[in-house]
Amino acid sequence: MADSPAVRPEAPEQPPAAGTRPAISALDVVALLCELVAFGTLAFWGFATWPMPWSLVIGIGAPVLAILLWALFVSPRAVVRVHPFVRALVELLVYASATLAWWDMGQAWVGVAFAVVAVTAGVLSGRRRLS
User: DSSP character for 20?
Assistant: First the structure.
């Protein structure tokens, strides 16, 4: 019994006071803009590249699916709490789908530029969340 380490229970983390939230940084704004551009890109891709009956299905369905994945796993108030690695994979999946949509529309440089900005913002905000 004497060899066991002294363990002290830690106080549970207190939630922030009502009506307060952390300050919004420029990185948060860039990450939000990347999310919105990804959703808009998927809608534009669906409406612009598919023939008429499918353009409505894919133009509405692709961004709705991306928003659903984002709300379930990535958002600050995610419904399902997952490991940070899974969260990063879902975020990367949404960004990669928007990048591939730009490539499919013949705008490879726009896709590459979006990918660089989105992945950089995702990595920086992910590192900030972990620290």
Answer: -
